[in-house]
Amino acid sequence: MDFILSGAAACGACLFTNPLEVVKTRMQLQGELKSRGTYQIYYRNVFHAFYTIGKVDGLAGLQKGLVPGLVYQFFMNGVRLGSYSIIESSGYIHTDGRVSAAKTTVAGAAAGVVGAVMGSPIYLVKTHIQNQATSSIAVGHQYQHQGMVHALAAIHKQHGILGLWRGSSAAVPRVSVGSAAQLYSFAASKELVIDLQVFPEGSWLVALCAGMISSVVVVAAMTPFDVVSTRLYNQPVDHTGKGELYKGFGDCFSKTLKKEGVTGLYKGLGASYFRLGPHTILSLLFWDELRKLWQQRR
């Protein structure tokens, strides 16, 4: 039940934040490996990107990749948050009744690794589909998938089972860092808000405030890993399945830093917060409330 509740909470958040994920993906791929001023800017900021995608691709364009997005959230966050719930229930993350920074970080990172490995094939497909756009506003490499199942079948047919895990070298550090930052900051913030007694005991506002604090920490820690992950997943590959732009996580990180500077690693930061921020707040709020409801029914 921990896994089901966690997956359901993440899916609920995804319904609201998927358009922001589309915008974030496009902005992270815009001007890939090009110096500032040497490429055409289709998306000037989050709001302009929303307007442009809606105008050219229609409102449906803002919900591209929703199906793989929901599947990814259910399995990846179901496993990640579900695993963490079990670890938390065992009392591991506390020392003398207080949240332990070291233990919570380790637990969050470990849960993130498991979730990232399981969800990587769906994240690969989600990235491809979300970046598919009309040629007039297209950025990065354009795949021509007809849907999630078609994409999975095509990648498997061309590159085998291992081809479905292409880009996982970036997914693991991305999700493990994000998971550790999210779950520790959420647990510590929740404990702090409870100590301050700002809200009544058991109020949903405790989880909301803790989620808002956690969202800022997550975006700051995760964005460089997110940019690298998006680019590794979306890069074109040769007939053997080998990436044509990057050899792996380290190569992508160093090339992006060399060509685009530190700002390249934080490309789409505004879009990242508008997507990761609400998703973190909503998923943690739904997760916390669903667990409380389940415990009350038992």
Automatic annotation (TrEMBL):
This is Solute carrier family 25 member 35. It is a multi-pass membrane protein. One of its GO terms (cellular component) is mitochondrial inner membrane. Belongs to the mitochondrial carrier (TC 2.A.29) family. Signal peptide: none annotated. Its main location: mitochondrion. Solcar repeats lie at residues 1-90, 99-192, 202-293. It comes from Coregonus suidteri. Coiled coil: none annotated. It is found in: Mitochondrion inner membrane. Pfam families: Mito_carr. Keywords: Membrane, Mitochondrion, Mitochondrion inner membrane, Repeat, Transmembrane, Transmembrane helix, Transport. The keyword Electron transport does not apply.
